[in-house]
Structures are given as C-alpha cells and as structure tokens.
Write a structure and sequence with these properties.
single chain, about 325 residues, Rossmann fold, 2 domains, about 20% strand
Length: about 325
C-alpha cells in the first residue's frame, strides 16, 4: 500500500503491507505514552484501529495496560466506564464518528452521567477523509457539547497535542479529544502551544476583524489573516481549542473590540464553535457583524481533503471573503 492510497483511507495503513513508522515526538502516540509512564492509572483501549490512532506505541511498550476490544465501540465505552470506576483513567480510541455518534447512549449513561474520567479520543474530524459520509464527523462536537459534564477539546495541530492530553487529564470527568492524523512529520521548530480548559489563545493580533477557529481551521484562519492584510485589514486570530468549556470572556472581548467576528470550524455550523459563540453573543447582548464558516446543513461526499474544503467553503479564501463581505456591509 502506498502512502497516497493510505491517505485515501483516512490514514489507515494495512498492517500486512505496512511497517509501523517511528512517531514524531509531537505525535499523539508519544504524548499518551509519556503521560502513561508518568501516571500508572492511565490505560489504553482500542477498537481495531491501533495504527491510525497511534496507540500501537502504547500497546508495544505497556502491553499490560492496553486492551483491544475489537470493532465494538459501544462495549469499549462500557469497559472504559468500568475501568474508571476502579480508579483507572481510560483513554478510548476510534475515528471521530464512531467514538461519538455510534456510541452516544453509552457515553451519556456510562461516562457523562456518572462524571467518570473517561477520555474519548477521536481521529479524522470533519471532512478530513476520502471515505465519505460514513466516516465524516460533522456533528461530533455538537453531540459532545450537549452532554452535561463533558469537556470538548480540539488542538490546532502537533504543536498543541501534548498540551491537549495534559488538559484532558487535568479535568476529573469525561473528555472528548478531537484529533487530526498528521500526514507529514511536523515541524519541530514551531513553538509549542499551551492549552487550558476554558481558555482561548490569541495567536495573532489585529484591529479590524476577529477570527475564532479550532483544530486545523486555525491554520486556515492564519492564512486568511494574511489575505485580509493584503486588503488593508488587520485580523486577530484566536485558537479556541477548548470548545467546552468555552472562553466566553474572550469571545465577548473580541466581539466588542472588532467590527467583524467570524468563526471557522471543520464541522457543521449547527451545534459547533459557531453556535457556541452565537449563544455567548446573544446572551451577553453584544451586537456585532457575525458569520460562521463551516459545513452548512448538508452531508458531504467522498473526495480529497483539499477538494472537500474548497467545495464546502472551508478554505482560508472563504474565511477572508466572508470577513470582507461583513466588513463592507453597513451596520444595521
């Protein structure tokens, strides 16, 4: 299997034809292993996806704390809840759509309701797969945000992975950790980025437009800020990795200090970051020009990530165009 065909499968590589690669120091696999070596309570659960979830590293080094449940995600969440009741901190892994929508009742009853420290780790968020609608998690953030006691985290990239694992461990309750599979070795010269639950992080400061983004869309937001700069407008970019709890204070501050506010997410605009920000603005009585960039109320299709991002309006150009449109619109 070639690397190109593996990418088509969403990062999965057939173990019969592919030898495990050495994971970068900034990978999730390394971050989880480091955390587990420091805390013997951490255990790892899998659903037949050790390679794409990078948990084979944990399996090989700490086999006595690794549990392969097979393709039965609902049972895996139940086992995770049971392990949590015995004092363990289970990290349960699958693709985003399978670790949320497929097992929603089990998550609600066996992790969220009893507020157990079950950490649910999903890979392949939003449109980041060619496997089509069955594997595209465009509603997972909405589902997880709706559950009481559940925290939701989506780091911007490898530079924030370790901090995301630490943040998940800092919360004594269930966490949904939404991760992308890195296609290339990350640039280890990029400074590491902190992550604190309930706090957003300003990664670029401007005066005219504020862009609030999460996950891979932070990079798109930064590129959009460059495009806006070429138009004579300066943009603030905020990395909203903590989707729940959300940094409501930062949202209000940015809305009051900028003429335009735009959210950007690799998720449906219904129930995700955009909806969360809209709730904050409405409840705080803050009036501003506001728009959401994300998947509209539609199912997508199979296709390369660049193709899907372009077709469904999730690129830096789409963000910049939306911001420009709002900036030019007279205030009501």
């Amino acid at each position: 299997m070639t690397d190109q065909s593996a990418d088509v499968m969403g990062g999965f590589k057939d173990a019969r034809t592919f030898r495990q690669e050495a994971l970068s120091a900034r990978s999730y696999g390394q971050a989880l292993l480091a955390a587990a070596k420091a805390d013997p309570r951490i255990v790892c659960l899998g659903a037949d996806l050790s390679q794409p979830t990078q948990t084979y590293l944990f399996r090989d080094e700490l086999p006595e704390r690794f549990f392969m449940l097979g393709i039965q995600e609902a049972n895996m969440v139940g086992v995770a809840g049971g392990l949590a009741r015995t004092g363990d901190i289970p990290f349960a892994h699958s693709f985003c759509v399978f670790i949320t929508r497929r097992v929603y009742d089990q998550i609600a009853m066996q992790a969220a309701y009893p507020k157990l420290p079950v950490k649910l780790v999903g890979f392949i968020p939003g449109l980041h797969t060619e496997l089509g609608v069955s594997h595209q998690a465009i509603d997972d953030i909405a589902l997880m945000r709706a559950l009481p006691n559940m925290a939701v985290i989506e780091p911007s990239g490898p530079e924030q992975i370790a901090a995301a694992v630490d943040a998940a461990l800092s919360y004594d309750g269930p966490v949904y950790l939404r991760l992308s599979i890195s296609r290339t070795k990350p640039d280890e010269t990029v400074p590491l980025i902190p992550l604190e639950l309930g706090k957003g992080l300003i990664v670029r400061r401007g005066e005219d437009i504020a862009i609030l983004a999460s996950g891979s869309m932070v990079a798109e937001a930064m590129a959009a800020a460059d495009l806006l700069d070429a138009q004579g407008l300066s943009a603030t970019v905020a990395n909203m990795a903590s989707l729940k709890p959300l940094d409501t204070g930062l949202v209000e501050q940015l809305a009051r200090n900028h003429r335009v506010l735009v959210t950007a997410e690799n998720h449906s605009i219904i129930g995700g970051l955009g909806s969360a920000v809209a709730d904050v603005l409405a409840l705080a009585g803050v009036s501003t020009k506001f728009a959401m960039v994300g998947v509209r109320d539609i199912f997508a299709e199979g296709g390369t990530t660049p193709y899907l991002m372009q077709k469904y309006g999730l690129t830096a150009q789409h963000i910049a165009d939306k911001a420009l449109e709002l900036h030019r619109r007279p205030r009501a």
